[in-house]
Protein: D-arabinono-1,4-lactone oxidase
Amino acid sequence: MDPFIARELEKLDPAVPFHATTDHLHHTWAKTFFSRPELYIRPRSIEEVQKLVTLARRCRRRLVTVGSGHSPSDLTCTSAWLVNLDDFNRILHVDTDTGLVTVQAGIRLYQLGPQLEEQGLTLDNLGSIDSQSIAGVIATGTHGSSLRHGLLSECIEGLSLVLANGELVRCSATDNPDLFRAALVSLGALGIVVEVTFKARRAFNVAWRQERYSLSKVLSEWSTGLWTSHEFVRVWWMPYEKGAIVWHADPTDKPLQAPPKNFYGGSLGYHIYHNLLALAQYVPRILPWVEWFVFGMQYGFRPGAVVTEAVQPSRQGLLMNCLYSQFVNEWALPLERGPEAITRLSAWLHGDLETARIPFSPKGLWVHCPIEVRVSDSTVSPKPRPFLDPTCRDGPTLYLNATLYRPYLRDPPCWKRYYEAFEWLMRDLGARPHWAKNFTTLDSTELQRLYKEDMDQWLKVRGEVDPQGMFLGEWHCRNLPVVAPLAEEAELPLVERERERRPLGARNAGDGVEWMGDRRWQHAPLSEIENSQKDKADELPADRSSSPSPPATEGSDESYEVLSKGEASILVHGA
Ligand SMILES: Cc1cc2nc3c(=O)[nH]c(=O)nc-3n(C[C@H](O)[C@H](O)[C@H](O)COP(=O)(O)OP(=O)(O)OC[C@H]3O[C@@H](n4cnc5c(N)ncnc54)[C@H](O)[C@@H]3O)c2cc1C
Structure:
């Protein structure tokens, strides 16, 4: 460890552990990005989180919190300090009468589900997987597919965060409400979420059913029951087959019934598909045939020929197998624009530029299947809306997700051209991107235009709770108007900018990229760091300079605004 960090660490309470390692290689689940943080820290208590935040501030380091690393972009990459709450993963309180549950923020959904079930409870809604941490799910606006639900974070009643000054703050609809709305989609840029309180639902089983439709049937039923006849519905569109797999699920009292097994559906099908995708890297024109073969083997070659059904606990039945490493590019648009979006994209992929009205050539371009079609409706709940919620404010939302697999971690050749055209269409239809995913053609100016005052509000709260940019990195600077161009050095001294990205080049890393930050602390003279600490200490309100942080702010006076100017740490010797 850097001797300067070791020296600063000695000034903090030795009774509070500091669990850090120096040789961690971080990567996203899809191995799209890798980075080597200077320290990888796994706190086990709120005091440990407060201590590491204090230490980071004194050492002038940026902090990134990572959950399970399922966001496929460079959002969680850093060369500074990476904090992970996998050891901070307990259920703290369950009230079976009200359904209110409080958990430590690092708990993964697959850990939470079975423990809740023992208490007769479950989450209202799930996305495709349950690998994520609850804080990660909230931070990027994760959603499932149901018009009876909005974002998964709809069930959240309150959050506790450790801010850049080390202060622990609670927020909810009534307590620090602006902070709550900002923290509901925080993108990791507000502080470290340490506890989450949510309202669980009575545990339920779902009866699900899956069958093949023609695309014309999907479009003709679009407004007449496709999305409204069942609580949970998702559609996998097969663009070359002009067909779709329609899956729907409802709560049921029927007895459990395991999903049927067939000889192809398990590991045989998995490996055949993977190798066909790998072959298509060299001969992309086979992709329509791959789609026909793989989806035909799995779901039948004709609409209605094979119907798959099962009854499972919702925590299992709502999930799906996402197979291989992938790029995902998902956008939220008004549900009523779905038929137009699908018709134009379909026309483009089939070379009909007149219908497509997309100003890019699809010549020689072949893409992967499925394009995921999902829905949500965040207008049904009276709960406060996250400032950065990408769903529609005034009606149901459609999510279109252009998935591209990366067989054996190799990027598909169509990647950049496909996403350029897809994103162009999405923007033309007034869509907004899912924050966690691989969108590339937007910048902070356009995202500001898409969010207007909501973005201003989010930025205001963010600036108040983290005025030095301790929780900001290149991803935030690229996509959010966090700072005026060229001003960040002075305004946000702790922000981490990207120095370079290059192929990792390691065995088993495929085309994964190593992201490298600017490590600006290496260039700051020690005297500057020490002065900046002195300045900060001098700013402390007299009555706070050496007292420990209180467990939470009281009332709803948004008191973090005041505290962010000073240090609320756990010093023993002072500095
Ligand atoms: C296979 C797969 C399937 C997916 N399915 C869906 C889906 O169905 N629906 C959907 O909407 N999305 C889906 N996603 C996206 C995924 O839900 C989000 O990327 C989610 O944010 C991942 O959670 P995580 O715990 O991995 O967070 P990470 O990816 O590790 O982090 C995401 C963000 O959360 C922040 N963060 C994490 N923990 C904390 C904390 N304690 N305090 C403050 N900030 C924190 C990070 O700093 C970062 O900004 C999927 C992704 C994959 C790879």
Observations:
- The domain at 205-441 is CATH 3.40.462.10 (Vanillyl-alcohol Oxidase; Chain A, domain 3).
- The chain has three domains: 3-87+445-531, 91-202, 205-441.
- Residues 537-557, 561-565, 568-575 have pLDDT under 50 and may be disordered.
- The longest helix spans residues 46-59.
